[in-house]
Amino acid sequence: MVIMTEIMVGLEIHVQLKTNSKLFCSCPTNYRDVEPNTNICPICTGQPGAKPLGLNKHALEQLIKIGIALKCEFNNTSVIQRKHYFYPDLPTGYQRTSKPIGINGKLGNVRIREIHIEEDPGRYELRLGTVDYNRANVPLIEIVTEPDMKSPADARVFLEELEAILNYLDAGRDEPGSMRVDANISIDGGTRVEVKNINSFKGVYDALMYEVIRQQNVIRRGGKVQMETRHFDESTGSTISMRKKETEEDYRYLPDPDVPPIQISGDMIQELKEKMPELPRAKAERFETHYKIKPDDAWILVMEMEIAKLFEEMIYNIESQGEFIEAQKVASWIRGPLKKQLNYRKMTFAESQLNTSWLTELFVMFNKGELSDRGMEQVLIALFEKKKGPKEIANELQLIKTNDLSEIERYVDETLESQQKAIEDYLSGNEKTLNFIVGQVIKATRGRVDSKVVKELILKKIKR
User: Fold this and answer.
1) Residue-number span of the structural domain to which 436 is assigned
2) Per 3-state DSSP, what percentage of the chain is helix, strand, and coil (rounded to 5)?
3) Can you give the pLDDT at residue 286?
4) Cα dist from 375 to 54, 357, 358, 386, 409, whole Å
5) Of the residues 240, 274, 308, which one is the last residue of a structural domain?
6) 1 in a structural domain
7) Contact 184/227 with Cβ under 8 angstroms?
8) pTM of the prediction?
């Protein structure tokens, strides 16, 4: 068990923006889909005499949308700076990065210190010694929080909501490595340690948990936590010292003379505000009040935009059919059986390409009692193959519940005949055995019978 008094966590989140072209040139941003060093030009490879184009306007608009969602104030003017450091993936020897554009924001209980825009470096394969500049100059924003998170779990919750917001805004690239996190952590008011380039939310949680234990052990042994930059190794779940922490002076920031200042007008901000979609927190509140569903269920639904859309479409489809089913039942089914199957396959609802109409039909069949829990789950699994509708699948697999008492009685008689020992145990006082016998009948019928009817028939025959 980890014993802790005070933890302070601040995050620096780097998000690649969803744009077609790079930040200061017209090269395409699909750096993963092409051969290395093909989506490049003299500008993004830092060739002598090559001058950057004006800042990508769409990238700036994406940043402002994110800033609005995070309740930021905006500076009317910002300057592009050169951040100097030498590494093979940085062809110019410096990274172009702006001064803060959005400031003083908030998401939940976490304050947002600033948002600024910068260019992504290339990709350096240390073990191979190769560099791919396709990613160089891809638009990137950095969101810097205050150290307001008090646990690794707080950091994970914050990042999950931020990811949902980016998805709703269609502002961030949705692919592996498009969001990277640097986590700053200190315990008991001690020295701050930075863990660099964590590539997943689970990685952030694991890295912070490891750092809490490591720093506690250093202090317990009488040592002092050093201010340093560490690397998180996902394969071992541990952090490794990389170098002493740099200071602002180490980067020798200076204004870039080749890029004009960024100008942001009040009209531009207002125009983007009017185009903003309903965001997760507002949607969750509406789901609670309008549909009368539990707060936890509402939050789970809105964390994935396509799941939230599915919920409302199912409600609409059900009402259009003249059916009345409580919205809470729909929410519970989506959060339960459906999410279970999606999580098992490690996919989002959008990736599953499941048919909303078929899911509605399946749920209505289940709610009407035409399918048992087990039968519904079997049909749902089959729907992932997207070949047939749920009623056709249920009929083919003989999963539709039967109300034929003579048929049910035949299955009960066959089960009782083969379970004499279980019957004796029940009659001797072991009441749990009755549930076992009921389960055997349901198994024999592949879930096509009502457990209450089966139980009544079994008790009636045993008592005889």
Assistant:
1) 405-463
2) 45, 20, 35
3) 98
4) 60, 19, 15, 17, 20
5) 274
6) no
7) no
8) 0.85
